[in-house]
Design goal:
heterodimer, A: 329 residues, mainly alpha, MetI-like fold, two-stranded antiparallel sheet, 77% helix, 2% strand, globular, B: 338 residues, alpha/beta, Rossmann fold, 4-stranded antiparallel β-sheet, 21% strand, binds adenosine-5'-triphosphate, binds magnesium ion
């Protein structure tokens, strides 16, 4: 188990290094950073001095090491646009995105697994058919269309829920939370449905397919033959066995929520990192773009690590094969 | 046939199972009659596809939809059980009728310890505290010959060998002291060297507990050693039934005689019977008269037109026209195959 984890950690660091390189390349070679920083009236000497001061005359390798060193200290430079430290900007925006992603993920998981189990067990009921048909619509509509549709129905027509912003937020330490006020909750409903709908559909279809598969297995037949109650068979035995693939896919999907949140945040003017990134792109604010990339990768890697840990928690066989993996690795 | 019955524990009468398909209704069982008396071992034999497993599943109400019971009835201990609601039948499964399936490698849920699965089953059927359930689980594992039973409760199925897993499966089937065990090819998936041990174990335990067994198998050797009586199945029916010694040595039905010719190779799966030309008709393609007629060396025109009922044969009962008074009047049939 330990070697397995170490392996996974090394892989994760590898992934992060590659993304860091990408981010570094963007930072240094998309446009001239000096041009981006100084005004039109700067002299050649000014520029040269700044170049020297920023270490842009050092070798690429030294610059990359320095970039990583800075990144590890959360130092991503100054935003051209806001003239403030990028890490401050991101830290300010992070709670909004993380809360949105968290609520969307929760929504996608709970509703997805629930409906997946239902449609798997009641294959022929009309509600199952309706859910499956509706879920097809869910995957085929692009996120921004869903967002706009929801806004049209629930904000414009019915006037039940706000169409933009986070509502009232409360400071908890340095975390700016929208989950402690009613207006915050009403504000997060539409964006999190918009963001989570696609993932919900995927999880629903996966859980259903896995349920159908597991219900055909011998150990389910044997569990029934042992006279276990329907509940014990369906939830104790069948559902648990669908969890390994569901955890994998759900983990990956939740990772992509972070990326997809860019669109949702734009549609709902949600003041998170995604919106910051879009604004960064509009202004060619390279430090923000680079930092965002790295952060998104970090979230991905962390989620994957958690997924790996959960596998082992669910499936005892993986604990063993992970130990065996030592000798082959 | 009825004369040999004194109040059977399990009585299956005219069981019909069919499968609705897009191309019409597919009959899988065409009226199976069999019974198991308390404490005895009934061997159920027949070629692959004869309907042995389906019969076992139909008895305990575990047919996989869309397959369903089309007719006939099942009596257990004087009580009709095929018409019971799902939950009432579930209470009989495991408690009164235990089941052992073919493949021990896939019968256990890989995600739970065997202790969990045992205690779960015990507590479903017996009113026991968790500790008592665990104690009983250890006793059961002990009884089926798992060494260091108490310490193996926390082990997962993958930590056991195939033979050991089948012992666990037997323990699971015995959890609530059922009166009947339906064992569907309990050793086919196992290593030949272990098969005899498992059969011996099953036989000993059932004798000790007075449990009756419906033993479905391909293995004539196992039948000869283990069973008290034998039912021979062919194309979705029982075509011969009688005491094991008679069926093995002096079968009445021409098919059974061919089948018994295959005894010598223990552990071998019968796919084709070398003694009988041709193959068993596929589901849905069973001929109108006797299903065995196309392969039968004795066939007469009567066999092709009418299906024989089970009637007293030599020392057993068999569904064969040769034991009917009408046999003498029947004409030898021309060979339609030739
Ligand atoms: N779900 C199904 N769909 C189609 N045919 C089926 C289905 N279930 C069973 N059958 C058919 O029913 C027949 C009887 O099957 P069954 O499994 O009872 O045979 P068996 O005697 O147990 O054979 P084996 O010795 O191979 O286990 C077979 O011909 C099989 O093809
Ligand atoms: Mg079978």
């Amino acid at each position: 188990m330990f070697t397995y984890l170490v392996n996974r950690l090394i892989q994760s660091i590898g992934v992060l290094l590659v993304v860091a390189l990408l981010s570094f390349v963007i930072f240094n070679y998309v446009g001239d950073p000096i041009n981006n920083m100084v005004g039109q009236e700067a002299t050649v000497e000014d520029r040269e001095e700044l170049r020297e001061r920023l270490g842009l005359n050092d070798s690429v390798f030294v610059q990359f090491i320095r970039f990583i060193g800075n990144a590890m200290q959360g130092e991503f430079g100054i935003s051209y646009q806001f003239q403030r430290s990028v890490s401050d900007l991101i830290l300010e925006r992070m709670p909004a995105t993380l809360e949105l992603v968290f609520i969307s993920a929760l929504f996608a998981l709970v509703a997805g697994i629930g409906m997946g189990v239902y449609t798997g067990l009641r294959r022929d009921s009309w509600l199952s058919r309706f859910i499956l048909t509706a879920s097809l619509v869910g995957v085929s509509l692009p996120t921004f269309v869903i967002g706009i549709l929801l806004i049209y129905i629930f904000s414009v027509t019915l006037d039940w829920l706000p169409s933009f912003g986070r509502g009232e937020t409360t400071k908890v330490g340095s975390w700016d939370s929208g989950l402690l006020t009613l207006s915050g909750w009403t504000a997060i409903i539409l964006p999190s449905i918009t963001l989570g709908l696609f993932q919900l559909t995927i999880i629903l279809r996966l859980v259903r397919a896995e349920m159908l598969e597991v219900l055909r297995t011998d150990f389910i037949k044997f569990a029934r033959a042992r006279g276990l109650s329907r509940r014990a068979v369906n939830f104790g035995h069948a559902l648990k066995n669908t969890m390994v693939p569901v955890i994998t896919i759900a983990g990956l999907q939740i990772g992509t929520l972070v990326a997809f949140s860019i669109i949702t945040e734009t549609v709902f003017q949600w003041p998170g990192m995604g919106l910051l990134f879009i604004q960064g792109v509009e202004f060619a604010d390279v430090p923000i773009m680079g930092a965002y990339l790295l952060l998104a990768a970090l979230v991905f890697v962390i989620i994957n690590l958690i997924v790996d840990l959960m596998y082992a928690a669910v499936d005892p066989r993986l604990r063993v094969s992970a130990q065996r993996g030592k000798s082959t690795a | 046939m009825t004369d040999t019955r004194d109040k059977p524990l399990l009585d299956v009468r005219g069981m019909k199972v069919g499968l609705p398909t897009r191309r019409g209704h597919l009959p899988i069982l065409n009226g199976v009659d069999l019974h198991v008396k308390a404490g005895e071992v009934l061997g159920v034999v027949g070629e692959s596809g004869a309907g042995k497993s389906i019969t076992g599943l139909a008895v305990i109400g575990l047919l996989e939809p869309p397959a369903r019971i089309d007719g006939g009835d099942v009596w257990f201990d004087g009580r009709r059980i095929d018409s019971l609601s799902g939950d009432d039948l579930r209470k009989i499964r495991g408690a009164e009728i235990g089941v052992i399936f073919q493949d021990p490698l896939t019968s256990l849920n890989p995600l739970y310890t065997i202790g969990y699965q045992l205690v779960e089953t015990i507590r479903t059927h017996l009113d026991m505290s968790a500790e008592d359930g665990e104690k009983r689980a250890v006793e059961l594992l002990d009884e089926v010959g798992i060494p260091a039973a108490a310490s193996r409760l926390r082990a997962y199925p993958h930590e056991f060998s195939g033979g050991m897993r089948q012992r666990v499966v037997i323990a699971l089937a015995l959890c609530a002291n059922p009166r009947l065990i339906i064992a569907d090819e309990p050793t086919t998936a196992l290593d030949v060297s272990i098969q005899a041990q498992i059969i011996a174990l099953l036989k000993r335990l059932c004798r000790e507990h007075g449990t009756a067994v419906m033993l479905i198998t391909h293995d004539m050797g196992v039948i000869a050693e283990t069973a008290d009586r034998v039912s021979v199945m062919y194309a979705g029916r029982v075509i011969e039934e009688g005491p094991v010694a008679e069926v093995v040595r002096n079968a009445s039905h021409p098919y059974s005689r061919g089948l018994m010719g295959s005894i010598p190779v223990i552990g071998e799966r019968i796919k084709r019977l070398p003694q009988i030309r041709g193959a068993m008709p596929r589901v849905g393609a069973v001929p109108k008269g006797c299903a065995f007629a196309p392969r039968c060396p004795l066939v007469r025109d009567l066999c092709r037109s009418e299906r024989p009922a089970v009637m007293p044969g030599r020392a057993t009962s068999a569904a064969c026209w040769q034991y009917s008074p009408r046999w003498e009047e029947a004409n030898p049939a021309e060979d339609v195959d030739a």
